[in-house]
Every structure is written in structure tokens, then in C-alpha cells.
């Protein structure tokens, strides 16, 4: 009986190279989709190694493109590989890889932002959240345009233990622009410390593995790329609903250079804003003169816990939107201007 993975590893060498696949199917990276191809199999192997032991594992690769990372995953001896590719031009090349690894590859032509992964893998692979991560991995060289909204979506899935994470604490190995990767892993006080740092680190162990220089990609992007590994935590560092944490963190960081008091006060309606902001900061034991990038994870935890209590006491508070209040004010001002102008014109006409 053949060892799982050996067939794929044995049959892959005779295939055309990734570069030849690109020429064969006349593939060209589309700038509007922020596509960049990685042709060096030494680098794709290095990316796949960051995912850990993949022998007999189940893997979902996001945006495989011409199939460079796909080859490295198959060579690692996986049991099953799910490929989710939005661009139909890449499907024929991926089908060649599928034929080289019979029964191992399943190709889905679709958008990862809308694809339902809850039923993508066998039920027996599911693990309890408190257990070790399941033998399922997400790997992907993500287009820059989709990387941030996608990781936010998956972090929300981690928080709610749904979507891909209905199988347990599934690990992810993904590429990002170097600057985004630095935000994901930044510490308090750092230049890149941001909303993304809190949202990712309160839910996952996040590791910035290594940097790939831009010239390794075709076409060469204007920035370098970093590989980041995520492992969901058993217990989040802030044990509040994802939407509440995101609202608090987003409010704090919207005035990054000002005292944190300025951002926090936008959580409250204009009526009683100052008093409630002082109440929140005093109860949470946060110095109002700290800048947002100086706040630690424990500061954010205290702010979220206190804000949750205030929302429980005033159910209408959580749905309040500072931006909506500003928009309504602007609409009212414009309305007053438009209604007062004709009266002045009429009076002038009468005179």
C-alpha cells in the first residue's frame, strides 16, 4: 500500500515548471487584482515549512495562481488539498497538478471572501477548541487588495469559532505586505502598533516568520512581502464579542496622534459625552493622556470590559455611531442653509 503523499511527490517532477505554465497558458498578473507570482520553489518550500508538519494533513490553499506553493504543499505529503481560486485563467494549470496527484486535489473556482468552509473537510477532523489544533491548515500567497479584509473576516470567525474554525483552532500561514505584517505583530509603543495589532494578538499567537524581497515576485511589487503564521488562542485575551472589541479599538486608534481620551469619547453621544468618557477611563484605570499606541493589551481589555458594562446598563449605547451623528449634523446644517437662502432671495426680489 502506497504511503499517502508519495504519489504526488513522485509524479510532480515531470511537470512543466511554474514559469513554463505561465507561458503555456499565457498568464499575466493583473494589476487591478494585485497579483504577484512566486516562481522560486525554494521560497515556496520555505513558506510551506512554516505551516509545520503537513504529512497526511488537510490543507486549504487560498489563491494558488499558477501553482508554485501548490507544488510545495503536495511535495510535503498532504492527504487532501483544497484550492480556492477566483481567477478562471489559472484553473487549467491547476488541473494539470490535480492530474499529477490523483485523488488529492479539489479545485474550487470561487471567491474566498464568500466561500463557505464549514463543510470543506471531513467531520472526523473536528477537534474541541481546548484541544490541540486540528490537522487542517490554511496557506496562501494573498493578493494585497484582499489580505487585510480577509484576515479581519477570519479573526471574526476565530472569535465566534465558526467558518473554517468550526473545525477547531486551525492554523494559518499567509503572506502580507511587509508593513501589514509588522502591524499584525507590533508591540505597544512601536511605530506600527495599530488596530490590526490588537485585533489579531488578542485572538491568536502571531509570528512574523520571514521577509521575501519584492524582486522574488513576478511582476516585482513596490514593497517586500512577509510570511505570517497564526495559531488561535484557547482563551482570547479580551473576552468580549468581536464587534464590541473592534468598535472600542477602532475608536481609540482613529485619532492616533492625540491623547487616547479623544478617540474614546467618540464611543458616546454628544449629550453627556465628557462625563461618560471620564467614567469609562477612571473605571478602566487608563491614563487619558496616553497616546493610542502606548496602550497595552490589558488597557484595551479593561476598556472593553467597562464599556460592555455601560452598554448593558444602556442598551442603546452600543448601536450609537459617532460618524452617523456627524453626518446627521452636516445634513441638518445643509438643510438650514438651503431653506434660508430662498427666503433671502425673495426678500431681495421684493425690495
UniProtKB/TrEMBL annotation:
GO biological process: transcription initiation at mitochondrial promoter
InterPro entries: KsgA/Erm (IPR001737), rRNA_Ade_diMease-like_C (IPR023165), rRNA_Ade_methylase_Trfase_N (IPR020598), rRNA_adenine_dimethylase (IPR011530), SAM-dependent_MTases_sf (IPR029063)
Entry annotated with the keyword Flavoprotein: no
The protein's Enzyme Commission number: 2.1.1.-
Subcellular location: Mitochondrion
Binding site for S-adenosyl-L-methionine: 36, 38, 63, 85, 111, 141
A Gene Ontology cellular-component term: mitochondrial matrix
Annotated keywords: DNA-binding, Methyltransferase, Mitochondrion, RNA-binding, rRNA processing, S-adenosyl-L-methionine, Transcription, Transcription regulation, Transferase, Transit peptide
Compositional bias per record (Polar residues), positions renumbered to this chain: 333-343
GO MF assignments: DNA binding; mitochondrial transcription factor activity; RNA binding; rRNA (adenine-N6,N6-)-dimethyltransferase activity; S-adenosyl-L-methionine binding
SUPFAM superfamilies listed in its UniProt record: S-adenosyl-L-methionine-dependent methyltransferases
Residue span(s) of domain Ribosomal RNA adenine methylase transferase N-terminal: 43-234
PROSITE patterns (alphabetical): SAM_RNA_A_N6_MT
Region named Disordered: 331-351
Primary residence: mitochondrion
Family: Belongs to the class I-like SAM-binding methyltransferase superfamily. rRNA adenine N(6)-methyltransferase family. KsgA subfamily.
Protein name per UniProt: rRNA adenine N(6)-methyltransferase
Organism: Cathartes aura
High-level lineage: Eukaryota, Metazoa, Chordata, Craniata, Vertebrata
Amino acid at each position: 500500500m502506497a504511503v499517502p503523499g508519495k504519489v504526488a511527490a513522485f509524479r510532480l517532477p515531470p511537470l512543466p515548471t511554474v514559469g513554463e505554465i505561465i507561458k503555456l497558458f499565457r498568464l499575466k498578473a493583473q494589476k487591478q487584482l494585485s497579483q504577484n507570482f512566486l516562481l522560486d520553489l525554494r521560497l515556496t518550500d520555505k513558506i510551506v515549512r512554516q505551516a509545520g508538519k503537513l504529512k497526511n494533513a488537510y490543507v486549504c490553499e487560498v489563491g494558488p495562481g499558477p501553482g508554485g506553493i501548490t507544488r510545495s504543499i503536495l511535495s510535503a505529503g498532504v492527504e487532501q488539498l483544497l484550492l480556492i481560486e477566483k481567477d478562471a485563467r489559472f484553473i487549467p494549470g491547476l488541473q494539470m497538478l490535480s492530474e499529477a496527484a490523483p485523488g488529492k486535489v479539489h479545485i474550487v473556482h470561487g471567491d474566498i471572501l464568500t466561500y463557505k468552509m464549514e463543510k470543506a473537510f471531513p467531520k472526523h477532523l473536528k477537534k474541541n477548541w481546548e484541544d490541540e489544533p486540528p490537522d487542517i491548515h490554511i496557506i496562501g500567497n494573498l493578493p494585497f487588495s484582499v489580505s487585510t479584509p480577509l484576515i479581519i473576516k477570519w479573526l471574526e470567525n476565530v472569535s465566534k469559532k465558526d467558518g473554517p474554525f468550526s473545525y477547531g483552532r486551525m492554523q494559518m500561514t499567509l503572506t502580507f505586505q511587509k508593513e501589514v505584517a509588522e502591524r499584525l505583530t507590533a508591540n505597544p509603543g512601536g511605530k506600527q502598533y495599530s488596530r490590526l495589532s490588537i485585533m489579531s494578538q488578542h485572538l491568536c499567537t502571531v509570528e512574523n516568520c520571514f521577509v521575501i524581497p519584492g524582486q522574488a515576485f513576478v511582476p516585482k511589487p513596490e514593497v517586500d512581502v512577509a510570511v505570517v503564521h497564526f495559531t488561535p488562542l484557547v482563551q482570547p485575551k479580551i473576552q468580549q464579542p468581536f464587534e464590541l472589541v473592534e468598535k472600542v479599538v477602532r475608536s481609540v486608534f482613529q485619532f492616533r496622534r492625540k491623547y487616547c481620551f479623544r478617540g474614546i469619547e467618540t464611543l458616546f453621544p454628544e449629550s453627556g459625552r465628557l462625563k461618560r468618557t471620564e467614567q469609562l477611563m477612571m473605571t478602566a484605570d487608563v491614563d487619558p493622556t496616553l497616546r493610542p499606541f502606548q496602550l497595552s493589551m490589558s488597557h484595551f481589555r479593561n476598556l472593553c470590559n467597562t464599556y460592555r458594562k455601560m452598554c448593558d446598563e444602556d442598551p442603546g449605547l452600543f448601536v450609537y455611531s459617532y460618524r452617523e451623528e456627524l453626518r446627521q449634523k452636516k445634513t441638518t446644517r445643509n438643510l438650514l442653509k438651503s431653506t434660508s437662502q430662498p427666503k433671502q432671495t425673495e426678500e431681495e426680489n421684493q425690495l
